[in-house]
Amino acid sequence: MLSANAWAAIALSLQLATVTTVLLIVLATPLAWWLHQSRSWAGRIAEVCVALPLVLPPTVIGFYLLLAFSPNYWPGSQWLSSTGQPLAFSFTGLVIGSMIYSLPFVVQPLQAAFAQLDHKLLHMARVQGLSTVGCFRHVVAPLCARGFIGAAVLGFAHTLGEFGVVLMIGGNLPGETQVASIAIFDAVEGLQYHEAHKLSLVMLVIAVTALLVIYGRRQKP
To answer: What's this model's pTM, rounded to 2 decimal places?
Structure first.
């Protein structure tokens, strides 16, 4: 059986991945739509910024976020004065860091889904008098459902496996900021290989399940 700390780390990882994925789907959808349509330099620059977490070492992102979240810089000082709590080493800080780090894993699948959308159908819906929200609800969302599911699963799975960013901005506080990946590292450092094996097996099962969801919904030609 897993220890209480291990279950707490798994629960925190699932909570972090769920909150991050929901917020990313809401916020990344309009961004992905704009990037899909944009032909401007601003769009290209935004695409580069979105893709940066794919190539930057997680510790670099975590380092700059740790500085930004500290009371010495504007985001951290504003958060501290508004809430009375520091942004670093908090669940909110983990969510913000996870959203930045997992952003390309949600935006890019959505962009790909929007690129395959038949825009004649969208034009016909507008001619029929549907509003922008109505077009999205009745045309874009149903036709791009696979893209949304793929983006959500990738964002969830990627957030679940984070290590460098969450370690930099959240530390290793059991029950507060210690997610499953950090708990595995902690167990290995303490030579508790049996505990690390059990935690890793749980994460492996979750990862395989996520991949089965993605590949199981793909239609072969």
So the answer is: 0.87
